[in-house]
Specification:
Elements lengths: L1 E8 L5 E8 L2 H10 L3 E7 L4 H11 L6 H16 L4 H11 L3 H15 L4 H5 L8 H13 L2 H55 L8 H36 L1 H13 L4 H21 L4 H9 L5 H15 L4 H8 L4 H13 L2 H58 L1
Antiparallel strand pairs: 1-2, 1-3
Length: 407
């Protein structure tokens, strides 16, 4: 089907402009009439293609943060609960937001709703902004007439997700800053500090200590081959990024992150907590179990776990239970599997998944504290070794030269 741009009049006679999909101009006119609008002009939407490409390129530089999506869900819940028409609410939110991409998205959703498209279908046209979970819950809210509850569930879920991400970012910020400082310090030492001492020591015809020779050798190697080292680093990073974006590479890398030393346990529990929270939310909102697994597979943010969730969906489609398919993935602990089995038997799977998510969130918070306690002595040890190597390499020859001068 093609896109058609139209001009129509609503019941009050106000002019409305927008675009609508349809097989022909006649079918588009029928869609407009069914929504209470009188078509004035209907033309194929082909003239603004170059302008759309320029606008898409401009908006590609923007992104919508999770905090903005949380605020949007809360605002939409308040508006729908107060009985404000969704069209008027979207128009007001599009005019007040400071994010260019979000404002353009809301205006496009507004145009599609005017053209007769359902809200969840309009949101699905913007996967950069709205996740499959967001779209699925909005669809359930539309079908059940409880759109305000759907937005409320989404706001609560996204708020928990935002807090979890902030805790993880706060825990890794300190070691990243320290590692960056170490790299900068090593670069300064190899470019300016060590060559200065090397030129001073070269004026003395004396054998230098081993530590000093190692420092001078590493500095000379760095000064001579740094362009090749930088090129290798950039090419390696580019190749690694290409590999992780491939299907097999993304799955392999995601699986490694779950088993990585120090932080692998945190990643595993955070991802499984997101899975349990998403499943509880979709089931409680009335999404069928098979469709819920499909939606959750797209929001767990880990390709390896997504693959396992899709295997769970295949097992359930064949008539197996949730607990047995979850056990076959090898991801969950016996405690979680037992809770899933109890949830199936009692019909309270959403409540048990909610408790599972709370359990994982508490575990993630505890593991983050342990990570900080484990990384800090490692970083202090690394810094101490670097300082000791630099001190010995610089001051040992000075002591030898001063002793030779006195002797």
């Amino acid at each position: 089907m093609a896109n058609f741009s139209y001009t129509a009049r609503d019941a009050q006679g106000a002019a409305i402009h927008g675009e609508l999909e349809g097989a022909s101009e006649r079918l588009v006119a029928e869609q407009l009439l069914r929504t209470g609008m009188t078509p004035v002009t209907i033309r194929p939407a082909v003239a603004a293609a170059s302008g759309e490409r320029k606008r898409a390129w401009r908006l590609a530089r923007h992104k919508v943060s999770l905090e903005e999506i949380v605020m949007l869900a809360r605002q939409l819940r308040t508006l729908t609960r107060a009985g404000v028409p969704i069209l008027r609410g979207l128009q007001g939110l599009a005019e007040t937001t400071d994010n260019a991409l979000l404002g353009d998205t809301l205006r496009d959703v507004h145009r599609q709703l005017q053209g007769g498209r359902e809200l969840h279908a309009a949101l699905a046209q913007h996967p950069r902004v709205f996740t499959p979970l967001f779209i699925a819950l909005v669809r359930v809210g539309e079908n059940t007439g409880k759109l305000d509850e759907a937005f409320g569930h989404l706001a609560d879920y996204l708020e928990v997700e935002k807090q979890t991400r902030e805790r993880i970012a706060s825990a890794v910020r300190y070691p990243i800053v320290v590692l960056f400082a170490i790299v900068v310090a090593l670069t300064i030492m190899n470019i300016w500090v060590i060559p200065t001492f090397a030129s001073a020591f070269a004026r003395f015809d004396a054998e230098l200590p081993l530590m000093t020779r190692l420092l001078m050798g590493s500095s000379a190697f760095f000064m001579q081959y740094w362009p090749w080292m930088l090129a290798t680093l950039l090419l390696g990073g580019f190749a690694f990024r290409r590999w992780t974006r491939s299907v097999n590479g993304e799955v392999a890398w995601s699986g490694f992150l779950l088993r990585a030393p120090l932080f692998g346990g945190i990643v595993r529990k955070a991802v499984l907590g997101r899975f349990a929270q998403s499943m509880a939310l979709t089931i409680r909102s009335g999404v069928p179990l098979i469709h819920a697994l499909t939606v959750v597979a797209g929001v767990v943010d880990n390709a390896y776990v997504s693959e396992k969730v899709r295997s769970m969906r295949s097992g359930i489609e064949k008539g197996d239970s949730v607990s047995r398919t979850a056990a076959a993935t090898g991801l969950f602990t016996p405690l979680v599997l037992q809770m899933l089995a109890v949830g199936e038997e009692t019909g309270a799977l959403d409540q048990l998944l909610e408790e599972t998510a709370s359990h994982y969130q508490a575990e993630v918070e505890f593991e983050l504290k342990r990570l900080g306690d484990a990384i800090e002595p490692i970083l202090i040890t690394v810094i101490g070794i670097l300082v000791a190597v630099l001190a010995l390499g610089v001051f040992l020859p000075l002591w030898d030269l001063s002793a030779a001068a006195r002797g």
